[in-house]
Design brief:
Protein name: Kinesin-like protein
Bound molecules: adenosine-5'-triphosphate
Family: Belongs to the TRAFAC class myosin-kinesin ATPase superfamily. Kinesin family. KIN-14 subfamily.
Radius of gyration: 61 Å
Keywords: ATP-binding, Coiled coil, Microtubule, Motor protein, Nucleotide-binding
Pfam families: Kinesin
Distance between the termini: 117 Å
Oligomer: single chain
GO molecular function, one term: ATP binding
Structural class: alpha/beta
Length: 695
């Protein structure tokens, strides 16, 4: 504290006596009045307090003074700096003044030059204005003269051009008229020719078709005869080879026996020789015997060689015959598929269910020979409203409406599944040859679809499978090996259910099986669907049993589910020929469609309504797809409109063969439904799909 006081009062440089004086002076200047009569201790205390406050004041003052001193120092520094700057400016001033003078001179010279140039410019501008004025006057004069001349020329040229144009137009009109007349007569001529060509073309086509069919039939029977002859030849060859083998064995045995005999005789001969005199005669005879035996042995060897050559020839012949058979099989495939193409890649057959009741509607089937369009015809007649029970068999009566339909084939009530399969078998062969085939049964509930398709004894499914395995057996002789797989599914309410799984009921309508297409390979797979490898025809009955059992269990009294869903049996056929290296993949789809009856949607509600809507949608989508496929102008085929058509995308259309059965009941109460079915089938039958190609 003393140090601070000292510093504030000028530091240690001040003598102590002076310090005290200053301190006294400060304390005397304070306003504290002197107490005259106060005791000395109190006075002392007061003095001490005064001194303290003085000291504090002095310290503040000292701080103020120090700040002032600092400011003064800063001011001094800046003053010094300014003075030095001022000095340097002052030294620059004369030089700058000289520079300014020089610049002023230059400026004055430029100003003078500018004034001179301005004068020249004014002169030039007045000259230019004068020249422009003169030119304008000259141009106006020239323009007036030229305009008159130009107008006259334009008028003359316009007249000339108009006349020429008129003449040309006249000539052109005449020429056009002439040309049009010529073209019209040519067109009439061409139309005539076209009609004649069309007629002859149609004649040729039907002739070719007929000839083709006859040829194919001939070739078929030829082929069968040849095949039988070849088979017989092979059998004979085999028998001959057997005989030859036996004879060869006999010969070998004889040779070895003879060799033993020769050995024995040689030994005897040696003994005999030793006793030569005695046995000379014997020797001679033995020699003769030996030489004859040697000759016999040589003959046998020769015979053996000949037999061996013959046997080799038989083997070669058999091989050649097999190859010929393979060639014939390839030719047969081509012809078979050509025949299918001629018949059309989409065909419709009609089947009429037998009816035990008497009130069936009258229908009539005319034979193929009576038609000119290559179709078989059927006509059904409306029953008069007055008494539906009263049948009108005479359909020529004027009050009875008659409806005619033509299909590729009509099977009447007496037709059996065996007869029907006769036709189908050709399509099964196509599937084996590597084509995709679809066979549908279409019709109202109870019209015989399931009976046709999957009757366990003789329906199309068991018969197809039987035929497939018979053919596979035959084709094996021609180096073909097959891998056969089966899948069985149903589509109910646009949802796929696996008919082959034991958990069918558990999974029903719950598992969402997805349809996946491979656009490059043009193949379709369905996720999580059971695939059954098939190795013989007998397996199919257990497949049908499982599927039927599953479908039956899902049906209830109120809903016959199996009639309200589509069932699809898919047989995949992969084949490989080890001789030719050829491989094929075919697919046979056998589809029993849901009942097509048009239940009025206003009569059903809830689940039944949804069911009906889904059936109608998928059946009409199927019709739309087939019709679009036949319409060459169609860019878009609406496969995606229903699960069924999406599933069959690669089995309908270009790369496939389709057959639709329209099943109808002859019962009068089903007249309207039968009419609807026949109409739908007619639409499908009028479709012509392009040529199928093998997979
Ligand atoms: N051609 C036929 N010969 C003998 N009976 C037949 C024939 N067609 C069908 N039936 C019999 O008629 C009945 C109905 O036939 P089916 O079940 O095949 O009809 P559907 O059209 O399949 O019916 P849904 O749509 O209900 O399945 C069955 O009892 C069947 O045995």
């Amino acid at each position: 504290m003393n140090d601070i006081t000292n510093t504030a009062l000028g530091g240690d440089s001040l003598p102590v006596s002076r310090k005290r004086k200053i301190s006294d002076a400060f304390s005397s200047s304070q306003s504290v009045p002197q107490q005259q009569q106060q005791p000395p201790s109190l006075v002392k205390q007061q003095k001490l307090d005064n001194s303290k406050s003085d000291l504090k004041n002095m310290r503040d003052r000292r701080q103020q003074l120090e700040a002032v001193l600092k400011e003064k120092q800063t001011a001094k520094d800046s003053l010094r700096k300014l003075q030095s700057e001022l000095w340097s400016i002052r030294t620059d001033i004369p030089e700058l003044e000289l520079k300014l003078e020089k610049l002023m001179d230059e400026h004055r010279a430029i100003e003078r030059g500018y004034k001179l140039k301005q004068g020249d410019l004014d002169l030039l501008s007045s000259k230019r204005d004068k020249q422009i004025h003169e030119l304008q006057l000259g141009f106006e004069l020239f323009q007036k003269e030229d305009e008159v001349k130009l107008n006259q020329e334009v008028e003359r040229l316009a007249d000339k051009f108009f006349n020429e144009a008129q003449q040309k137009e006249e000539q052109r009109r005449k020429r056009n008229k002439q040309e049009r007349e010529n073209l019209e007569s040519q067109l009439a001529e061409l139309n005539k020719k076209k009609k004649a060509i069309e007629q002859s073309f149609e004649d040729q086509i039907s002739n070719l078709k007929r000839e083709g069919e006859i040829k194919i039939e001939n070739m078929k029977s030829d082929y069968h005869l040849k095949k039988q002859a070849i088979r017989l030849q092979i059998e004979n060859t085999k028998a001959e080879i057997g005989i030859t083998h036996d004879r060869m064995k006999d010969a070998e045995l004889t040779i070895s026996k003879n060799n033993d005999k020769i050995e024995k005789l040689s030994n005897e001969f040696k003994i005999a020789k030793a006793n030569s005199g005695e046995f000379e005669e014997k020797t001679k005879s033995l020699r003769l015997e030996v030489s004859s035996l040697i000759q016999f042995s040589a003959d046998r060897s020769k015979e053996y060689e000949q037999l061996r050559e013959k046997s080799q020839k038989f083997v070669d012949d058999t091989k050649a015959l097999r190859e010929k058979l393979l060639e014939e099989e390839t030719a047969r495939r081509k012809l078979h598929n050509k025949l299918q193409e001629i018949k059309g890649n989409i065909r419709v057959f009609c089947r009429i269910k037998p009816e035990l009741e008497t009130n069936s509607f009258p229908h009539k089937i005319t034979s193929l020979l009576e038609t000119t369009d290559g179709k078989e015809h059927l006509s059904i007649s409306e029953v008069p409203n007055t008494d539906q029970r009263q049948l009108q068999f005479n359909s020529n009566k004027s009050n009875i409406k008659r409806f005619n339909f033509g299909f590729d084939k009509i099977f009447d009530m007496e037709s059996s599944n065996a007869e029907i399969f006769e036709e189908i078998s050709q399509l099964v062969q196509s599937a084996l040859d590597g084509y995709n085939v679809c066979i549908f049964t279409y019709g109202q509930t109870g019209s015989g679809k399931t009976y046709t398709m999957s009757n366990p004894n003789d329906g199309m499914i068991p018969r197809s499978v039987k035929l497939i395995f018979n053919r596979i057996e035959q084709l094996r002789e021609m180096y073909w090996e097959f891998k056969v797989e089966g899948q069985f599914l149903e589509i109910y309410n646009e949802n796929i259910n696996d008919l082959m799984t034991e958990s069918y009921l558990k999974n029903l309508d719950k598992i969402k099986h997805q349809i996946k297409h491979n656009e490059i390979e043009q193949t379709t797979t369905i996720t999580d669907l059971t695939t059954i490898p098939l190795s013989n025809a007998e397996e199919v009955s257990s497949i049908l049993e499982t599927a039927n059992r599953n479908r039956m269990t899902a049906s209830t009294n109120s809903n016959n589910r199996s009639s309200r869903s589509h069932s699809v049996f898919i047989i995949s056929l992969k084949a490989y020929n080890s001789q030719t290296g050829e491989s094929t993949t075919g697919k046979l789809n056998l589809i029993d469609l849901a009942g097509s009856e048009r239940i009025s949607q206003s009569l059903v509600t809830g689940d039944r309504l949804r069911e009906t809507q889904n059936i109608n949608k998928s059946l009409s989508s199927l019709g739309d797809v087939i019709i679009s496929l036949g319409n060459k102008k169609s860019q878009h085929i609406p496969y995606r409109n229903s699960k069924l058509t999406y599933l069959l995308q690669y089995s309908l259309g270009g790369n496939s063969k389709t057959l639709m059965f329209v099943n109808v009941s002859p019962n009068v109460k089903h007249f309207n439904e039968s009419l609807n079915s026949l109409r739908f089938a007619t639409k499908v039958n009028n479709t012509h799909i392009g040529q199928a190609t093998k997979n």
